[in-house]
Amino acid sequence: MKIVILLGAPGAGKGTVAGFVCEQRGFAQLSTGDMLRTAVRSGNTVGQLAKGYMDRGELVPDEVIIRIVREYLESHGNDAKYLLDGFPRTVAQADALDRVLAEMHEKIFAVVQMDVPEWLIIKRITGRRVCKQCGDVYNLPEWAPKVEGVCDKCGGPVIQRNDDKPETVTNRLAVYEKQTAPLVEFYKKTGKLVRIDASDRHETDLNVVRIVDGAA
Ligand code: AMP
Q1: pLDDT digits (tens, 9 = 90+) for 171-191
Q2: Minimum CA distance residue for ligand 1 atom 8
Q3: How far is the CA of 214 from the centre of ligand 1 (A)?
Q4: Active site residue 70
Q5: Domain 2-116+180-212 part of CATH 3.40.50.300
Q6: Which residues contact 74 (CB under 8 A, 6 or more apart)?
Q7: Rounded distance, CA 42 to CA 44, Å?
Q8: The whole model's pTM is what?
Q9: Residue extents of the structural domains in the chain
């Protein structure tokens, strides 16, 4: 098993780089945000519980997230390579991940700290649009769908995520600083942390590929 963690604020580009690296290097993308959005759409118990937290820009309780990730990793076998996008987001989640991996006789390969200046984060989050149907991500004005509001890939409606609206974004960034940023110190101590400037998408893709290949 090869586990690489992408660590960065909302809008740092974790999902975008994960898509690229998964395609180039055969990693599976483990995005807790995507898993939760699927759960909300399906209306299952996890979805019903998570929706309120997500709409407010707060974190879903650790127990729920840890259970989802544990079940995912345990059911997917030890051979695969995983890119963790949006998990862990608290020290409790990071501790739990270490425990799950220890039980599986596995460990983390690398943690990529994606640094992006705050103005660019806000521009990216407020410009982000997603396809309601297939989840494909766009960013206005540079990466707009060819026909406004219509997904290039599947023709579904392209909308703004509820939690990308300005009133929620401020809260999500505050939550990141308070609950997730301490993970930088946590992973620094493990010697696995690699910091990159993630302002430029193309450079970021190449840097993360280099890191997952183990050449960094
Ligand atoms: P994301 O797509 O990663 O920005 O996640 C969207 C929302 O899902 C977050 O604002 C949280 O409400 C929730 N979420 C995603 N991942 C986690 C996590 N690891 N821990 C707690 N909440 C999460």
Answers
A1: 999 999 999 999 999 999 999
A2: 33
A3: 28
A4: no
A5: yes
A6: 100, 104
A7: 6
A8: 0.92
A9: 2-116+180-212, 117-164
